[in-house]
Amino acid sequence: MCMSGTADARIAGAGRYAPSPSGELHFGNLRTALISWLVARSHSLPFYMRVEDVDTQRSSLESAAQQLEDLQRIGLDWDGEVLYQHQRFPAYEHVVESLRARGLVYECYCSRKDIAHAASAPHAIPGHYPGTCRDLSDAQRQAKREELEATGRHPALRLRSDATSGTVQDYWAGNYRGDVDDFVLRRGGQAPDWAYNLAVVVDDHHQQVGHVVRGDDLLPSAPRQAYLARLLGYEVPLYVHVPLVLNEQGRRLAKRDGAVTLHQMEQHSSTADVIQALGESLGVVGARSTAEILEHWDMDQLPRTAVTFRG
Ligand code: GLU
């Protein structure tokens, strides 16, 4: 196989793509998936697929099946079985129990409104959980828990962090510093789902992921995830946050923009045309298959700014 560009030694461990199955993938998602695959395959590293269906209300197996089929149709392959997060709940529970045993977990009874209100206080750090439930007494907790449970809701579980910010290494953004706070490990309310920030860290470790390629809307979450990984004694992956695809109005491409899913695009183009458009958005002209894109792509030639989708 001819690999253009230089293999970067920092790209190590496995790669992965981790879609949330709450609808069809659009051109921007397919492009991020393709980049994840290209980065792993051009470094001869394993590439895994993980269905991030922690959000039990919004996820469906039908949607997961459709997404996997679309990814295969554009020519992506992956190693081993697909990992479904709904099968990983005992692992998340185990990790949270281990943190709880270290005194690093507390229940939070706040509603969104409570948080918004407390966060507007003069000394609150913008975007941080204001710590309302962090230091409650046992009696206060008991009272708040009973009050909440009487309405059929569960408390959230939060991490007791001792940082307000943290850094990660990103392939393009370099040393990136962002917020760390007492973020949620398990969501509250009627459906106490495990939180994305917990599941992603536990599963990246489980799958021995060494480099995380994903949309740059998630860059601000990376310091929280790295903080948790370090607490758990996990190695922190190298991040490769990719600029998002925008619509013609300059906003993040979304399904409501129309003609953006593979099925929709295939109404007026062939699958190979779609693959060619994906390749061209990465700076590879004229390739009709993902294997051909792999042959000619150069990670360092990838456009560093957001790409505009013109259907
Ligand atoms: N499941 C997330 C999404 O579909 C991606 C999370 C990640 O790659 O860390 O946007």
What features would you describe in this structure?
- Helices cover 33% and strands 15% of the residues.
- The protein is of the alpha/beta class.
- It folds into two domains: 15-86 and 196-308, HUPs (Rossmann fold); 91-186, Glutamyl-tRNA Synthetase, Domain 3 (Glutamyl-tRNA Synthetase, domain 3).
- α1 packs across α10 and α6 (196-206) crosses α7.
- The longest helix has 16 residues, at 27-42.
- The two termini are 32 Å apart.
- The model has no long low-confidence stretch (mean pLDDT 94).
- Residues 18-20, 52, 200, 214, 218 line the site of glutamic acid.
Topology:
Blueprint: E1 15-17, H1 27-42, E2 47-51, H2 61-73, E3 83-84, H3 89-101, E4 105-108, H4 112-119, H5 138-149, E5 156-159, E6 165-170, E7 174-179, E8 184-186, H6 196-206, E9 211-215, H7 222-231, E10 238-242, E11 245-246, H8 262-265, H9 271-280, H10 290-296, E12 307-308
Parallel strand pairs: 1-2, 2-3, 9-10, 11-12
Antiparallel strand pairs: 4-5, 5-8, 6-7
Helix pairs in contact: 1-10, 6-7
The chain binds glutamic acid.
